[in-house]
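On clarity, I found the account of how folds are encoded harder to follow than it need be. Since the whole study asks how a given chain folds, the encoding of that fold should be made plain. The format is easy to grasp once an entry is in front of the reader. For illustration, here is how one protein appears when written out as sequence plus structure tokens.
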Amino acid sequence: MVFTSWRGVVGVVKPTHRPGSLEEFIRLMPEGVGVVPVYLDFKRGTEEEFGAALNAVHDKVAELAKEGVDLIHPEGAPPFMIHGFQGEAKITKEWEDEFKIPIVTAAQTQVEALRALGVKKFVGVTYFVGSINDMFTRYFQSAGFEVLAMEGMKVDFADVGRLASTEIYGHTRQAFLKHPDADGIYMLGTGWRCLDIIHLLEEDLQVPVVHAVPARVWSVQKRLHIRQKKLGFGKLLEEMP
């Protein structure tokens, strides 16, 4: 592991066994970074399931700590967002004290990315519907953002990866045009396959877009003291602010 991972090793906790986002992450990361994945098994994508997940996430973080990785990244924003912005920070600080390894969650990378891009008020899009979107909104409000909307897309949790990126583009564009004063777009979740529309959305709507996968790549690079730009996937990776 050390021989092939001369720039560092990141351990990731994947919330589901869905293919797609892990491959995207590895392809966008620079050469010399090792990735060690472990998996949870979310099935329903409900607030109840996310709320009960913390002990399971902790066990996976402990597993990665035993492997001696340089950084641990629990993916899946909702299981941490449900504890609130301050509650999440308290959890990750306690785990860092316990395992002596830096830890950053998906939601934390997204907050950092929005701030780095100068976004203050944004429109969010998700593949959830109902009150869970209110929970996402409260999280970002607590982090200091003005959330103009958190527009859910009605799709079964198991079928998110089957959506065409053009459908996701249409949903995102429609949500943004209701709030043209927004200075950014936030796309929650790595379940949908839509990296190919991020640059297109930024060109068409003239605001930065924060999507979980590029935010993860940017944040992990930053923490491993790497700054390798990647074109074609939005301003965050193109400029590496």
Notes: The chain is about 45% helix and 15% strand.
